[in-house]
């Protein structure tokens, strides 16, 4: 079996322009997100030290689940958009640090939609500044993921309300979604 080629990663990502709210348009289902999650979004805030506050939110059974973390450049001397993201789990009792790769594989020139992956190709996200994107753009991003060696048949579109939920809403304080996700529920 031939080795997969190194993925192409955005160079010269403008972190300030990247900050703000992004909506998950599609992703590979993962154990760390609720299986029935809707209105999934990420909010990024640049800190003075150059790291990024990360707030991931999703709604499941009418309740908001969230987890906060920190992103930082994997290699500060590189101009490649290869970031590391660190979360503490479980989110309701943050004890264990978990670090993952967050590679920006594509971003449009207006910073309106992006393709995010990581080297094992087990995780993939299509993100947008809006809750929905045109089919043509979606298909271009899927094609880009395929070119980078992803099995795009695993992509699952994330239901998004229009308009999206405002504020935080009722929160899942017990972290039950996280426990259920460990058991594949």
UniProtKB/TrEMBL annotation:
Pfam families to which the protein is assigned, alphabetical: Lipocalin_2
GO BP: lipid metabolic process; response to reactive oxygen species
Domain Lipocalin/cytosolic fatty-acid binding: 13-160
GO cellular component terms, semicolon-separated: cytoplasm
Region feature Disordered, mapped onto this chain: 152-175
Gene3D superfamilies: 2.40.128.20
CDD domains according to UniProt: lipocalin_Blc-like (cd19438)
InterPro entries on file: Calycin, Lipocalin_ApoD, Lipocalin_bac, Lipocalin_Blc-like_dom, Lipocalin_CS, Lipocln_cytosolic_FA-bd_dom
PANTHER family: APOLIPOPROTEIN D
Family note: Belongs to the calycin superfamily. Lipocalin family.
Protein name: Lipocalin/cytosolic fatty-acid binding domain-containing protein
């Amino acid at each position: 079996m031939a080795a997969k080629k190194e993925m192409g990663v955005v160079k010269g990502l403008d972190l300030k322009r990247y900050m703000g709210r992004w909506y998950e348009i599609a992703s590979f289902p993962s154990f760390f997100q609720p299986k029935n999650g809707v209105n999934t979004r990420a909010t990024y805030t640049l800190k003075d030290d150059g790291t990024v506050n990360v707030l991931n939110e999703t709604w499941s059974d009418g309740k908001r689940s969230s987890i906060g973390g920190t992103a930082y450049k994997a290699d500060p001397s590189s101009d490649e958009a290869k970031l590391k993201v660190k979360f503490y789990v479980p989110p309701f009792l943050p004890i264990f640090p978990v670090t993952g790769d967050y590679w920006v594989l594509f971003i449009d020139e207006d910073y309106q939609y992006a393709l995010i992956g990581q080297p094992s190709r087990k995780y993939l996200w299509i993100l947008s500044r809006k809750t929905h994107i045109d089919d043509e753009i979606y298909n271009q991003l899927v094609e880009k993921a395929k070119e980078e060696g992803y099995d795009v048949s695993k992509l699952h579109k994330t239901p998004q309300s229009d308009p999206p939920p405002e504020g935080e809403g009722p929160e899942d304080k017990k972290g039950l979604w996280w426990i259920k996700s460990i058991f594949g529920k």
